[in-house]
Amino acid sequence: MATYSHGVSAPIGRRPAARSRRPFLQREGVLGWLLLSPVLLVMLVLVVWPFSTAIWMSFTDKSIGREANWVGLANFSQVLSSPRFGRAIQNSLVFTVVAIFLKFVLGMAMALVLNKAFFGRNFLRAYLLVPWVLPGFVAYMIWRWFLDPLQGVLNYALTDIGLITLPLEFLSSPASAMPSVILAHVWRSFPFFGVAFLAGLQNIPAEQYEAAAVDGANGWQKFLFITIPGLRHVILVVLMLATIWTFNAFEPVYLLTGGGPADSTLVYTVLAYEMGIVNMRLGEASAVPVMILPLLGMFIVALSGLMNRDE
Amino acid sequence: MSSFAPAVAPRPRPLRLQQRLAFAPAALVVAALTLFVSLPLYSMVATAFKTDKEIYDDFSYIPRQPTLIQFERVIVGDRFFVNIQNSVIVATTTTVVSVTMSVLAAFAVVRLRFYGRVWIARLILFKYLLPTTLIYIPLFLVVNGLGLANTLQSLIFTYLSFSIPFATWLLMGYFRGIPAELEEQAMIDGCSRIGAMLRVLLPIAAPGVVAAAIFTFTGAWNEFLLALVFINRPALQTVPVKLSSMIVGDQYVWGSIMAGAILASLPVVVLYFLAQRFVVSGLAAGAVKG
To answer: By three-state DSSP, how is residue A6 classified?
Structure first.
């Protein structure tokens, strides 16, 4: 078999048999690296180069159109001592934690109800996915208009129901801006939690619920002792994925408030954009990801271990 | 043949007892979620079909005289088709290039045994998880260094940095689910290694390739940050940046923005619903399961 199989089913770590007898281009190592070379080249130019540049630049005073001078740790101390950076990290954390909590609750509710059979379920499953299918920028433009204090539908509706008498300045008052941005972001991304959990639910054998019913378990107990353990892996992966995405989100804040009013929604991604692109201080702006990366990197390594589990 | 593709989840078996007990709260949840999802969407659609007078002076929930004037304004006045064309060029090229490269790379990592493949697989997953917000400033310098500033090529080129890791990761999941014996059979019958991949593996993995293509196209179509940073000539802007740049102060542009938003959403929404089956199984194979 080995002579014909070209090692297709060889276990990991085993050297391909009869290596030297094969034509050069059909050796697995040569062919493998040959097929990988376009991707490796792209990764080198688009990942390794930029990262080394970023790390180098964070120690310089590089700005657009100017030569870079070595400034040591000045950028880091500058960024760390800036009150706006502290504010931005705090906002990023609040945004991430609250949004993920809400996405989890709504996504779980969506998955649980869609897991039941009822008339119109297939349509609803597709329809509830629409906010997530829409381009992100479209979702946030919709919300910016929907929440408009003067002509937004929400203010008209709340007034007509009689809940408010004066229009609410959702995005332009410091107290309500962050909750509004979070709400828009949750609207856009909870369906991802919903479909992921739904897929997980459908892998839990119905027999487990039947057995629990025979033993007299109520709905809440079934949820706690069958559903949650059955979804453990999906929940963990989805939460970690979403934490990375949410913490690094740029569009919701940039498109809804631009970080204002009075920095009440300023997240770290928007601050880095301001420093690097708007104020053209690339050195200082590069210090931000260089500080974030080690923490995020550990998170990503942990997550990739989880996602590789069934390899 | 389709039995080798990652299985689409089976229909759930209804749980009669629980279903009856939980019917009322479930109906309430369905209603609340539907309302939450619908209101902003409705606001977009209604606004896009109103006249400026109905949008700004004389509010009504339902457009009294539905009109296409906002679509006409965004297409003729804002030359929106130029931006749509830019987006189509960028998204299509990105998709073709990254899916081709990713098929080869995923095949190599999953099917060939050679030193370093495990590390490559890890590197690809790591890059897939790494957000673009962390690398766009140095990417900007790379683009400038290569003389690509203010070109569509700069977008196509840099979009590969996120589309290739994702597509490769997704395809690796698909290829793993297909037994290697079929290719071995083809090679016994005289196929070359690459021939077996093209004639045996790819046809079976077609749903995965379609899913990878859809996700890549959508990702490129929706991408905002790089397009915002790399392009500042209006004629070269892609759809997301063009639309967001139309918000200027308090000018009466929301009608055309909402019309533009509908036009910008149509391609990806239609793609998803045509290929929903592939997308859901692709999501299961790529994003969640591993």
So the answer is: coil
